[in-house]
Amino acid sequence: MTLNQILEKKYLSVRAYNVCGNNNLYNLNLIVDYYSKNSSFKNLRNCGDGTNEELIEFSKNHLLETSETTDKKESQISFAELTSKLTRKQREVINSFIFINTSSLSIRSQNAVKSHLQNNLKIKNFSRKILDANLDVNNMKNVGKKSVPEIEMYIAIVKDFFNEISKIDDDRQLTILRNQFLIQKTFGIKQIPNEILVSESIYKLTNFFLEKNAFFDSKETLILKKSLDVYENTEEITLEKIAELIDLSRERVRQLRRNCLEQFSTNFNFLKNFNDDLYSNYGIEENSSFIFVDDELKKRINKVNETVFSKSFLTYILYIYRSDDYSLIGNIEDVLQTNYFNHRNRHNWNSFYLVEKQISKSFSFESLLDDISSRYEERITETYTFNFKSYLSKFLTYDQIERLDEIMPIAEKIIFNELNIIIDLDDNISFQRNTSKLAYEYAYEALEQLGKPSKVKDIVFAVKQLHPNYETDEPKIRVSMKRKHGFVPVGRKSIFGLKKWENELENFKGGTIRTISKEFLLEFNEPQHQKEIAKYVKQFRPKTNAKSIYNNLYVDESRTFVFFENYFIGLTSKEYPDKFNILSKTAPSTKRTWEESLDDLKQFISENERLPFSSGCPEEEEKLYRWFNVQKGKVKKNKLNEHQANIIQSVVDKFEDSIGKRRTNNDERYVMLKMFVQEYLRLPNASIKDEQNLYAFHYKERKKYEAGELDENDKQKLIEVALLLQKLKI
């Protein structure tokens, strides 16, 4: 008589039932046997005086009945013979029972039992080495006195369970007994719905265990449900929102999610105790070398089990169930987590795939996808092609060329699903040109159309005239017109021309008055008079004059120029004859007027439509930033006259909010970052000099995002960059 049957017949109270269940006394024989050996139940966990008396009376009433049955059994039964007559279902149930009970033993007892059975916990071996051997536990190797009672009770439990199962022929009843024992013993769940007790479905059982917080505690389960791709069409919730729901910090939520992912395989391994018929239920060929859960299979599985699991989670559960035969291809964090930022040094997986273990051992699908992804991350200016079979041979882990024929169709399916790449009819894989027309190419075309140096707003207008459907604006065009792309600035008024025009157009030269003057002075070994410099510069900047050029060079803070008596000018990088006398004070020491600094600020704002930055920019911009900040301080201390204070305050009102934070934020830098991603299909690299400032900006923004310190505007722009990168890689 099982413990449940005893309760149904009301032979015991619920309290006594719970005490017996919690102490592994699962049937009448075990209860009576425990009483026979101990004469009391007081040593059982949670057993009070009233429950002890109830169990003693119950045992006395059934003592004669069980002893007669036991004597009869022991005189007639050969366990080895009985084992040979068991059905497959009976063996499965008993094997599961032995495995779970062995795992429940103390480590010392568990090691002793496994050593005695040589790690073979199947019923056939158990019968031969323990049940039919009349094993004296005291004589077992490495078993101390404290372990003897525990192992004796363990053997008695298995023996009684063996006897009970051997009498049951009904598969449905066997499933109920097996499920009830496994679930109660492993998770301590008392109330189990009948549909779960009779179920062999790994998906229906998984859904039940998640609802009961069996695999993880309630907080961990909520984190998994809300932050992982477990259910279909689940609204994405950030770690911050989850942290608010369960009253934990964001970092603690992240740690718990990571820990749960690490325990996934171990916790879900419990599903191997069941026997889901994958072919009959879902049409899955269990001997197939490759299994992929597509949309159709997902619908079929969810419909049969009345679940709403995602494709990724369905595949993962299937992998756990068949992990003895299949390997899981795909990264668990990529597939189950929502990741705004891709890993830069490997492929970012979209799905899971199951590949037969012998194939996965001989071929690295991960390295294949990493290689293809890295090729597409590079700029491909010309399409090139490989023979697919020859290309795959690079990723064989052993020299098993003969396996390529069975690897090819699997690799082809994975590549198509992950990267949308199709192998052509000649069995070739093509790496298509991935460079689309970039922003600077539109600007270049527009300038060619205009035929003369033009302001940014005129270039943007020309671009829109030529390409009405192309969305752009002045910041995007401005940051794209770099010298390396064939552009040259003309002065400092947001006017640009083409480098090639210096050879094609008469009297055209890009750059500023300073760069043109420097170019002229490099040609001579002696300083040149301001009139000679002006004569050269005016070919390209006809509206300037000698005095203006001299003053422009004189206030240059880069220490490029050196000034001599009688208005001669040279370069600090050159050595000149002693006959030229250097002025006692050169340009950097000349103090600028307030109005001159204000004019520079106005010109900067006019050209850039923002205030200067404090770092990661040219030195002149940093100095302008410092001057403006000093003026703001003087306004607060009433150290400027009314006219000056009104000018500074008007700039503050236009570009800063009430707490002094720039309204423009990092808009232009984000434009530059998006332009970079579109051009190079990757993020900036810290090891490349020209990319270091943009890399530092992106790095700081990511750190602020992870710390929850980024405002909504910049957070949205950072996510847009990440999504753009993902889209371009696809």
Architecture overview:
It is built from 36 helices and eleven strands. It has 730 residues and is mainly alpha-helical. Strand 10 (561-564) and strand 11 (568-571) form a beta hairpin.
Brief account:
The protein contains 36 helices and eleven strands.
What secondary-structure arrangement, pairings included, does this model have?
Layout: H1 3-8, H2 14-22, H3 28-38, H4 49-76, H5 79-84, H6 88-104, H7 107-116, H8 123-131, H9 147-166, H10 171-187, H11 194-197, H12 202-211, H13 218-227, H14 239-246, H15 250-268, H16 278-282, E1 290-291, H17 295-305, H18 311-321, E2 326-329, H19 332-336, E3 353-356, H20 357-362, H21 365-377, E4 384-387, H22 388-392, H23 404-419, E5 428-431, H24 439-450, E6 454-455, H25 456-466, H26 474-480, E7 487-489, E8 495-498, H27 501-504, H28 513-521, E9 528-529, H29 530-537, H30 546-554, E10 561-564, E11 568-571, H31 594-608, H32 619-636, H33 642-655, H34 667-680, H35 692-706, H36 712-729
Antiparallel strand pairs: 1-3, 2-3, 4-5, 6-8, 7-8, 9-11, 10-11
Helicity, as a percent range: 55-70%
The side-by-side strand order for the widest beta sheet comes to 1-3-2
Instruction: Determine the N-to-C terminus distance.
Output: 63 Å
Please mark out the parts with pLDDT under 50 across 5 or more consecutive residues, or reply none: 71-76, 586-590
Mean pLDDT: 84
Backbone shape: elongated
Amount of beta strand: 5-15%
Helix run count: 36
Radius of gyration: 40 Å
In total, the number of strands is 11
Biggest sheet layout: 3 strands, antiparallel
The helix-and-strand class reads: mainly alpha
